[in-house]
Amino acid sequence: MNTVLDTVVIGGGAMGSAAAWALSRRGRHVTLVEQFGPGHKIGASHGTTRNLNPGYHRPEYVAILAEGLALWDELEQESGEQLLARTGVVNHGPEPRFTDVAAALNEAGIRAEFLSPAEAGERWRGIRFDQQVLHMPDGGQLNPDAALPAFQRLAAARGADIRHHTKVVDFQVMNDGVRLVLESAAGTEAVTAAQAVVTAGGWTEKLLGGAFAGYALAGGGAGLRIPQLRVTQEQPAHFRIADEGAVWPGFNHYPGAGAEYRNWYSPVYGMHTPGEGIKAGWHGVGPVTDPDRRSFLPEPVQLAALQDYARTWLPGVDPDAFETISCTYTTTPDEDFVLDRIGPVVIGAGFSGHGFKFTPVIGRMLADLATGTRPAPQIFRAGR
Ligand SMILES: Cc1cc2nc3c(=O)[nH]c(=O)nc-3n(C[C@H](O)[C@H](O)[C@H](O)COP(=O)(O)OP(=O)(O)OC[C@H]3O[C@@H](n4cnc5c(N)ncnc54)[C@H](O)[C@@H]3O)c2cc1C
């Protein structure tokens, strides 16, 4: 028996949920399939905090940042949920691009101001500030565990079919649509659909590998060449708060060349997660992993270096009391996203550890691609 569908969204993480929301708002009949259950912790979109760090200077990102701030507001009103804690974000360290960031943000109407380390230290005594401090009051923390169900609930209210515990085990792209085989507790189901939106996170290459064999590009050639995707297992940690009176913004600390940055793996990002502590983590340097064969265990040397970081730069926490988190990044070589379409397939992938803040805009961009409204900016195109 073959089921015929309109638009299938593959993957119920942040980006698939936002695509279902954006497409259902345009009257598309969407079926979202997700291999795991609601709130699963096996991909990249779980937990109660992600930084909405406005620290961008490239025009394409500043534009979607501004749109994102408006769309998160809209989603909060539509869902009746608070999704963004407006704590502000502070980026610090000897980072030469801060001046460009401040100029680009202020021009876009997003607030950015420089503070002295002493001023910043007075306001946020849990953090030891380093040289330059860029404060962005419009930033804060987003809550994935509230946002994903909100997107899905609003999409379902507009007729979308949200199917958890349903895995795509075969995916074939044809010139007239796509063919899928779904596996769930109900058994195996053959499906054809006019269109598919692939938002499969760390599983993207597995799903797309061989999928275009039956698809012929106009003028010859087959398939979509997307940038190589590196899937890593990332391991931030929640440190116990030692200074209960301290106020916490989101923060990002960029290293310089000096000896004090010797044991660093990358810039450090962090934020307060209510009820769990202060999250801090290295960015995009975890071990390469197969999303179906993960250890979920922290790499001990990186973890020890993270504790050292907390000991030196986060006086407001106990560096020896922490819980580690395990999560995946799917990173492109240039760390820009992949947002593109070929024939009946739209792809959203490679969010490179910085996609969550843009989620509702990514949903809008994927819906634009699916409806042929407008292409994504060049920097996000697959063949760039
Ligand atoms: C530790 C960590 C910290 C981060 N911090 C920030 C931050 O502070 N700010 C920020 O902006 N971003 C941050 N990010 C990045 C952000 O969380 C991600 O960019 C975003 O969540 C990616 O969402 P996604 O939907 O692409 O991936 P995922 O959430 O992984 O979703 C993909 C989904 O597809 C499903 N799937 C895959 N294959 C199949 C199949 N065959 N059948 C059915 N379902 C399938 C998977 O089960 C999964 O649920 C962070 C990420 C991590 C890991």
Average pLDDT score = 96
Number of helices: 8
CATH homolog superfamily of the largest domain:
D-Amino Acid Oxidase, subunit A, domain 2
Give the number of domains.
Answer: 2
Give a topology summary.
Blueprint (H helix, E strand, L loop, with lengths): L1 E9 L3 H12 L4 E4 L16 E3 L6 H21 L4 E2 L3 E4 L5 H10 L5 E3 L1 H7 L9 E4 L3 E3 L1 H14 L3 E3 L3 E8 L2 E8 L2 E12 L5 H5 L21 E5 L2 E5 L8 E4 L14 E6 L3 E6 L17 H14 L3 E8 L2 E5 L6 E5 L2 E5 L9 H13 L13
Parallel strand pairs: 1-2, 1-12, 2-9, 5-15, 12-21
Antiparallel strand pairs: 3-8, 4-8, 5-7, 6-7, 10-11, 11-12, 13-19, 14-17, 14-18, 15-16, 16-17, 20-21
Helix pairs in contact: 1-5, 1-8
The protein binds flavin-adenine dinucleotide (FAD).
Please provide a brief summary of the model:
With 384 residues, this protein is an alpha+beta fold.
Structure description:
The protein is of the alpha+beta class. The chain folds into 2 domains: 174 residues, FAD/NAD(P)-binding domain, CATH 3.50.50.60; 194 residues, 2-Layer Sandwich (D-Amino Acid Oxidase, Chain A, domain 2). Helix content is 25%, strand content 29%. The protein contains 8 helices and 21 strands. Strands 1, 2, 9, 10, 11, 12, 20 and 21 form an 8-stranded mixed β-sheet that branches. A hairpin with a 2-residue loop joins strand 20 and strand 21. Helix 1 runs parallel beside helix 5 and helix 1 packs across helix 8. The protein is globular and about 65 Å long. The model has no long low-confidence stretch (mean pLDDT 96). Bound molecules: flavin-adenine dinucleotide. Flavin-adenine dinucleotide (FAD) binds next to helix 1, strand 3, strand 10 and strand 19. The site of flavin-adenine dinucleotide has 37 residues, from helix 1, strand 3, strand 10 and strand 19.
